[in-house]
Predict the structure.
Amino acid sequence: MAQAVSENSPARGRLALSPQARVNIAGYLFITPWILKFLTLNAGAMIVSLGISLFKTDFFTTFDFIGFDNYTRLFRDPLFWKSLSVTAYYAFGMVPLALVFSLVIALLLNQNVKFQGVYRVVYYLPSIVSGVAVAILWKYLLQPRWGLINQGLALVGIEGPKWLFSTTWAMPAFILMGVWAAGGNMLLYLAGLQGIPTDLYHAASIDGANAWHRFWRITLPMLTPTIYFNLIISIIGAWQIFTQSYIITAGGPDNSTLTMVLLLYRKGFQQFHFGYASAIAWVLFTIVMLFTVLIVRSSEAWVFYAGEVRG
Amino acid sequence: MNGKRFTRRDFLKGATVGAAGVAMAACIPAETAAPASDMPAEEGVTLRFMSRPHSQLAQEVFPDLIADNFTANTDPPINVNVETAASGWADKLVTSMIAGDAVDIFQAWPDIFYVWVAKDLILDIQPYVDRDLTQADLDDFIEAQWTRLRIRGIRVGMPKYIDVRCMAYNKDLFDEYGVAYPSNFGADWDWQEFTAMAEALTQDKDGDGAIDLWGSRIVATSSAEFFGWLRAFGGDYVNPNDDTDCWLDEPASQEAMNWVFENMWVKEPNPFIRPEDVSGTYDDFVSGRVAIPWFNVRPAQQAEQVGQEINWDYAHVPSGPVRRDALGDADAWSIWNGSSHPDEAWQFINFLSGPVFQELGTLRSEGSLPIRKSLMSKAVDVYREEFPAVADKHLEIIPEMMEMGYLENVIWFKDNAAAFELIGPAMERIFNLGDADPSLMIEVCAEVEAYQASLE
């Protein structure tokens, strides 16, 4: 009987797919363009660069296999350690500040205020402006004597720092730039905020929860998937900081803004040590991967998905 | 259910095979579309020319200028595809050279040449020069620049234009503070007279206790901008006879650096503006914050940026205790060593450095300074005609500089990028931060020399 049903089924002759399989296929189809791009443009280059990192090569006159010498040399190079500490300073300084700042802005913009759309555009704008234009703009803003920031501080009686002309303040200036461009995070938070069911707030209000309780017990937990995404993307982006230090300070003063990617660029394209530059790239990749894995692993403890059932 | 499940493994297999197929298909050369540059000579060739025009006008007119004055005179025709260089062009060019798909002709300058010659990326055009150029041709080039384009034993290219440095001075400020102008447009002044003028012009104009007018600005952290001052004092960056020997620790170089350092960081008030107070060369000049800035001689640019907003003029750089010296950098058009058409590329760059293109392209379209002596006096007339905003300036400074013969090029270390990885931060500490004095260079030079000497 079962055979007869099967033969008369309209699905006969077509691949029998479960509803879950259909959903899976749809998901895979959505990510197919990215997978194709990754396989054709990225994966090959990454594998080649891993191989190159085992060679002493300028691509033109030398191609000597040296095993892991580039890596051991890297760990003896004071400039590498300098660039590592500079980049870590930026990542650990900028990412938390940008996450908090963009969340605060998103919460404010989520209120029912006039010209809400205008404010959203204004805050989002910095994240779509070209990195070079942003760098040049900030170079003027941060000029110690004539720049708008120190002029503004002077109005309230504060003598501003020398920013890009100070080994102490150059990296905080970069962090300020990074936080300013957190509009992308803000937009995702806004989307997340608008996805939180209002019933939850109504129920909490009836139970006597005040604004702080509602934020702490409803908004923040419900936003954790967005925070999780923003955190990963921001960490990855922060470790790859390049444009600001390349355009504005060239790594100075006194290497205080020498980031890992800038060092990589110098070693590769200015000094033609492409094997060494590739080794830096792989160390950077490993660091970023470690942080990403750490965040992904820890997410079970702090990321809450609505509808998720935990055992 | 008996139907085969479509798993993630199946998907990835399929995607990989598909991607590999696409990639392989892309690698198969098209049978009908052979590159124009591989066509038989009888049908002509097409050269790829990476152009770095200095003006919008030049970008627009170069293709027609080349077609009308070069391609039209070649048989079989040598066509030229003009590709305007994008930002980051040098990195992209290196990448395309690695890939074996670079342009035939590009424009660069000595510090790039110095590295690229070592990597065997540039064609030596000396055999073509010996074959095709007459002594009269050679005599028409500015000698110092022509000489400088022989780098690491090869001739790296044909000169494009000269990038020269001078001083400019704000006459209004000189008048206001009763300071005499540099006599003979600076042809007679020396470093002491210049320093005295800078001191006299350094002022707290609004009386708020902070200096807001500085006498001059010396760019000290760029080797190309600063080496002239070192030579004026008898020093240099690098020993001219040994490119592993750092000369910033030599007494004469130290004297030059101390002169700048003291005027920037020690004297109160400081007659040379500190980098942290700089807003921009033209901005500081036009707004009356710097009275005697250090300038490129680019009349087209200065007509636009300074023009008649203030009463100003050009002046020669002051001589130092030993001599007068300033940058006269020769950019050049070079041929990629991997070019399939070196002979045609030579014909083309010879045309670019020739009198026709030097006048129509370099001088009239770009507003740049031509490399040929025969065009120098004409250059002054053309600038006056094309850029009325600088017509009343002492543009004769251009031929005067050539006659006085103080324009030179910087000499580089064997591995200059590596040397500057050490020198740059130290220079920043001395001149940008002011937290170390020039004696810091003595230990830095020792490090630089140790590394340079270790190179093969």
Q: What stands out?
A: The longest helix of chain A spans residues 19-52. The beta strands of chain A are 55-57, 63-65.
